[in-house]
Write a structure and sequence with these properties.
single chain, four-stranded mixed β-sheet, two-stranded antiparallel ribbon, 2 domains, globular, Glutaredoxin, Glutathione S-transferase Yfyf (Class Pi), Chain A, domain 2, 40% helix, alpha+beta
Length: 323
């Protein structure tokens, strides 16, 4: 399953298991790394479909780095990456025909060209150094932190801080349970290959969503901060996909975001931040999920609805006036 569809392997008991990212170097403003922040030096490769890649793009936009760090968006649908090799059945990300970054056709080719040694996972996002032609990092959590703090000398919005010091403990604590239960939880349910593994994943997922709803009934954001933080971006990128994709495609249909009034209005608020709106491409998202996982959706039929409109008015301003 992992090699065929570009996703990670499943354990013996049918549970989904995600591999660790391999490229973990850092851009540092203090000169302690060979990678220093320079406008035009770095390039970001993403998919709008991937919530991890999409959150790096959201932070890039919120910080005003869109001119300093260009982005390439891959084709939404997985395709066979070695069609000439009958023994290779890996399906993964392709570059669009008119946007073949660095002259290669696939993300797999990109990794093979610009890395040494075995690559366990041909994933996005990729932060690439065009000056030295090296892959710097492909771990979204670390790219988000780099964009937040290390590029302020070239950011248009250097005062935006998504990981403020006084809330770092709170942000880390929230991330520690939102990731396994919700961000990764939808995948654990969707790619489960046993009833037992699915049941465990779904139970943890909805326990997490119920807790989010409880928190959002008394807090404007997911932490105690009176402003949006990286924890909100990480949560939002899963929630915005939930009703259109995960509820149906990944069988996470016990409840929808629409069934959680505080959560639904929270998603509307974050979606309507101008820098965030453009990072959500629902057509791209739906085409990827419904057409890229034949083990989940054999015929690649894209579900019709529900056609969620997160541009509708929300109640967060009235419920939680900002100080």
């Amino acid at each position: 399953m992992g090699s065929k569809e570009g996703i990670t392997e499943v354990t013996k008991d049918g549970a989904y298991s995600r591999k660790e990212s391999q490229f973990r170097r850092s851009v540092k403003a203090d000169g302690s790394s060979e990678f220093t922040p320079e406008a035009g030096r770095y390039h970001l490769i993403i998919s709008y479909a991937c919530p991890w890649a999409s959150r790096t793009n959201a932070v890039r936009m919120l910080k005003g780095l869109e001119e300093a760090i260009p982005v390439t968006v891959v084709h939404p649908v997985f395709q066979r990456t070695r069609p000439e090799d009958d023994n290779d059945n890996h399906h993964g990300w392709f570059f669009n025909e008119n946007d073949k970054y660095m002259g290669v056709n696939t993300v797999r080719d990109f990794y093979d060209k610009y890395s040494t040694g075995d690559v366990s996972r041909y994933s996005v996002p990729i932060l690439f150094d065009t000056k030295t032609e090296q892959i710097v990092n492909n771990e979204s959590a670390e790219i988000v932190r780099m964009f937040n703090t290390e590029f302020n000398n070239i950011a248009k919005n250097p005062d935006v801080d998504l990981y403020p010091e006084q809330y770092q403990h709170d942000i880390d604590e929230v991330n520690s349970w939102i990731y396994p239960r919700i961000n990764n939880g939808v995948y654990a349910a969707g790619f489960a290959q046993s009833q037992e593994a699915y049941d465990v994943a779904v139970e943890l997922l909805f326990e997490g969503l119920d807790l989010v709803e409880q928190i959002l009934s008394t807090h404007r954001y997911i932490t105690d901060s009176n402003t949006i933080t990286e924890a909100d971006i990480r949560l939002f990128k899963t929630l915005v996909r939930f009703d259109e994709v995960y509820a149906t495609h990944f069988k996470c249909n016990k409840k929808r975001v629409a069934d959680y009034p505080n959560m639904e209005n929270y998603v509307r608020e974050i979606y309507q931040i101008p820098e965030i709106t453009g990072t959500v491409n629902m057509d791209h998202i739906k085409r990827h999920y419904y057409c890229s996982h034949p083990s989940v959706n054999k015929f690649g039929i894209i579900a019709v609805g529900p056609g969620v409109d997160y541009s509708q008015a929300h109640d967060r301003d009235e419920k939680f006036p900002l100080k």
